[in-house]
Amino acid sequence: MAAGFWWFTKRPQPGVVTTSPITPSASGAALAVAPTKAIGRSMSGATPPLLGEVILRDYASPSTSPENDLTSLAHLMDNFTLLVKSAADRPLSANEDWAATLRGLNLAHERFLPDQHVALDAQGRLVDRWGTPLFFHALGDHRFELRSAGPDKKLWTDDDVHRNADGSFRHGATLNPTSLFESTPH
Fold first, then answer.
1. Is residue 131 part of a domain?
2. Which tens digit of pLDDT belongs to each residue from 4-20?
3. Considering the domain boundaries, does residue 59 fall inside one?
């Protein structure tokens, strides 16, 4: 199915190009869905948007939440690992790894985001809506957590937005639990 999706989106088509973003199912597996939006080509021969541009179309928009940003980015990461099978051979964990990979620096040379996307800063790192680099925590087996520093632009504070691997979020006091060293009487 992934090969069919790749072939469909990569073959040249005159006129209108339809894209089919891949979204997670209720079980968490990524599935291709029917085309939801037709994206027209201009007469000047402009290329259709990359898959990451479609998935992150509302990234950092004032009409969406920071949680939506992290969820959309997680969906893009899931789609990358689904479509680029060689990703299993090279686990990705750091922000710089993911940013480079989504910009096409992967074994398949597949580009998911343009260099000038709102989710990327001038250094090529993936950033939150406030321009702060995101923190990635790899859990193994293609599972990861994402963390935004929030409006204060400082990680590990109570305004951070943390997306767990299961898609749930932590906020406020649940973000930074007391460490075992701090809670143990001396």
1. yes
2. 444 445 544 443 333 44
3. yes
179 found inside a domain:
no
Q: Is residue 185 part of a domain?
A: no
The Cα 144–Cα 120 span in angstroms is 19
Q: Are 160 and 148 within 8 A, CB to CB? A: yes
Q: Which domain, by its residues, includes 152?
A: 2-172
Per the structure, the count of domains in the chain is 1
- Compute the average pLDDT of residues 54-66: 97
Tell me the β-bridge partners of 146.
136, 163
CA 120/CA 143 separation, integer angstroms: 22
Long-range contacts of 157-166 (CB under 8 A, 24+ apart): 161/66, 161/67, 161/70, 161/128, 163/67, 163/70, 163/71, 163/74, 165/139, 166/28
Question: In this model, does residue 170 exceed pLDDT 60?
Answer: yes
Asked if 131 contacts 143 with a C-beta cutoff of 8 angstroms, the reply is no
